[in-house]
Write a structure and sequence with these properties.
single chain, 121 residues
Length: 121
Amino acid sequence: MAIRKRQQDVRLFRLQAQTKVIRSMNKLLLAVAGLVLGCAAVATWLPQKRELARLEAKLEETERQEREVLAEKSYRDAELKAMREDREFLELKAMDRLNLHRPGDKVYRVRSRGEGHGIAP
């Protein structure tokens, strides 16, 4: 009986040892699976984040262009209204475009950077 008891104890010890190894392997495999899933999640998230940043930059640029166009439209609308309703404005605009002036008027022209420096009378 003592031998049988001892054999059962040895078998029980081996089973316990095997169970510990299996549990350890399961924990390790679970950790590896979690790591792989985490890496996969990050790998799919990064390109989407980059694309979002690119699209947000494009949206910002488009909104800036829209503001410029709206400001230009507002300026053009005001200029058109002035041309339709204000004869003096229309006369000044026409004289400026045709490079005309009345006798005795002083005309000042501002040169652009490529034309030279300063103001010429």
